[in-house]
Design brief:
It is built from 16 helices and twelve strands. With 385 residues, the chain is of the alpha/beta class. Strand 10 and strand 11 form a beta hairpin. The longest helix is centred in the middle third of the chain and has 18 residues.
Length: 385
Amino acid sequence: MLPRNYDFSKVTLTIEVCKACNVYCENCFLAYENRLRDRRLFKKEWVTKLAESRIFQKCEDLYVSILGGELSIVDQDYLEDLVNHIKTLWPDCSFSMVSNFFNSKPRFLDLYLKHSDVVETTFDFGRQNLNRNRDVFLASFRQYIEELARRGADLNIDINFVMNRQSLEYGVDAALDYFSSFSLPEGGRLLLKFDHGIDFVTFRAQGMPHDRRSGMPMFPLDLGYGDYAAFVAEFRRKRDARDLSWIVVPQIDFADQRPDDRFFFTKGSGRVISLSSDGFVTTNPVFTEIPSTFLGNIADMKLDECLGSDRYFLAYSREQRRAMECSSCEYFERCEGGSLFLPKHLGGDTSECAGIKSFFRLQEAEGITHRSPTRYAPTTVGGEG
């Protein structure tokens, strides 16, 4: 039985194909041991089972994103078969394959360009190859973004820029130097969508604390909201001073960003259905190793059963309570409370919140009212695994 009175007209379906990865990220949402050794792959028959859900009969706007771990190291015959199967079941869906673009093989890039509607990746300046070399990763990332931009002129290039301690320490000037070094074709743009970095190392060390009623995780942030907002504002100010208009910061440059496009999945329940490589169903791809968030497993349950569970209702109810807390805010319709799996405020500091009010105030001060590009393709955290 599906939840009553819930709008499933727009749905994001994310599928974690694998957990294995080829880069090192200190604060990945996947445990380090799993990234090194877990070789399980998502089963193709589970996609068929998903498609039987009444959710997809109601859905008018479906976005499917497959991710890892790292897709480029997966057996390419398996990956091509899985992608074709998804496209057969949902031929009208928007679709993306998430990659970290480190040492990607030509066949993977061909498959990526054939099927993806958007170049979707996650990035931070703490990312390294497995030998702990950041410069090697940065060079590879630039190379493949340039290659995709050259070969796929109509692709949006969405980079989910995770603001963590390493990105803060790298600095605004060095970050601008790096992104401005990209060689893109005429009219090419980089959309840098800044997002909040979560301290998953601390989260796991603390035993994955969560709300006892709903199971929703209580994530510690890597940076406070004030530091995050200051970095983004300075990045944009110096970008303008250097006349780098092709580096776009949608959260400030566009006044009417949809809530899910401002941050990573402002609201999860109902908009997002996520599956792990071992079949667990959650409402967010970063929850795939957090047992308190599991709604069931597609291997032995139907999706409608998972979404009809008490756990799903409690997770949805918690989001509604959070939304009510923010409903009196003048920016609520543009924000919906920010990413609802993050704390509204940090400690006793109420000068900033999860929705980063200062972005709206900056837009108002500059008279930014033009419309953003419209499409339903929220950026996914954890493109590398």
